[in-house]
Write a structure and sequence with these properties.
With 167 residues, this protein is an alpha+beta fold. Helices cover 40% and strands 15% of the residues. The protein contains six helices and four strands. It has a four-stranded antiparallel beta sheet. Strand 3 (144-151) and strand 4 form a beta hairpin. The longest helix is centred in the N-terminal third of the chain and has 20 residues, at 2-21. It is globular.
Length: 167
């Protein structure tokens, strides 16, 4: 029972983390982190965008307040065009277009797709205390930086892309 409650709490934090992180002074409850394998699957399960349809609905329902809107239009288009999905969610995305953002902004975007574990692996600069916290998160095993999803469970080496847990 206790494990179930803890799992629910972690899931709740993962769902609300992008919105909590938007507030610089927000206090976040301290919860022991799940293992890298558990974290990746929790992040993916809590991701609001797992299909092209989810992305379309997100963009329609959040035309001005989506975390995606902080990206310059060209970078946003390159990022969105790079997204590859399967039945589990995003399998591959382009990360280099996120490297002009702050760690908090990149985390919020990647959280939409359950790939926020990639954030500390990116070349990001931020000076706020929250940016520093984001960059100090222990990186997940997945997503794999500089790999793309070639097919079910197969990540292949690539440039400026990341292979996600859904692969």
């Amino acid at each position: 029972m206790k494990l179930y409650v803890m799992s629910g709490l972690v899931s709740a934090l993962l769902v609300f983390a992008p919105y909590v992180l938007a507030t610089e002074g927000a206090q976040v409850a301290s919860v022991s982190q799940p293992s890298s394998e558990q974290s990746g699957s929790l992040e993916l399960a809590a991701a609001p965008i797992k299909s092209p349809r989810d992305l379309e609905l997100h963009l329609k329902s959040h035309p001005g307040d989506s975390p995606l809107m902080v990206m310059p239009p060209l970078n946003r288009r390159l990022f969105l065009d790079s997204l590859r999905f399967n039945e589990k969610g995003v399998t591959t995305l382009r990360y280099d277009v996120l490297e002009s953002l702050t760690p908090t902004e990149a985390y919020q975007i990647l959280s939409l797709f359950g790939m926020q574990g990639l954030t500390p692996q990116l070349n990001l600069r931020g000076s706020s205390p929250l940016d520093k916290k984001v960059m100090s998160i222990t990186p997940s095993l997945l997503p794999l930086k500089d790999y793309y999803c070639e097919g079910k469970g197969t990540c292949r080496q690539g440039s400026n892309v990341a292979c996600g847990d859904a692969c």
